[in-house]
Structure prediction request, 148 residues.
Amino acid sequence: MAGEVSGEKGLTDVFANAGSAVEDVQKVYGGTSWIDAVNPQAQGGSWTFDKEQIDSVIGQWEDLLEACLQDKVALDTLLAMLPAPSEDEPSSNYVKVLWDGLGSLQEYNDSVQIYIADFIDRLKAAKTGIERTEADNVDPFANVGSSE
Prediction:
């Protein structure tokens, strides 16, 4: 069909008529498109840590997990003490909206806790790998020539 129109738009399409705002951002980031500057075609990333760094990173993530657990306690407390101020419909609806919102926060908090716990497990596995590699590299010739 000639002149077919797609309902999908890319970021470039969305900001095509943004005018001076785009130009101002281009002045800061340079290049032909600020989108290219803030959204490069990255293929993914990786980190490298030494043993001391990874212990620190694991500690930071464990602190974040503890903060999420404290948030869960606070959310549970709020939900437990949230009765409707009266039996009329507007009050009941208001409390229902609050319950729904707090329930969504609980779901989000739970998913963040799962993510953090998984990430901590991965960091600990990486730490074990680092320790194993360091142990193997300490004396790579220690067992050379032994018949045992």
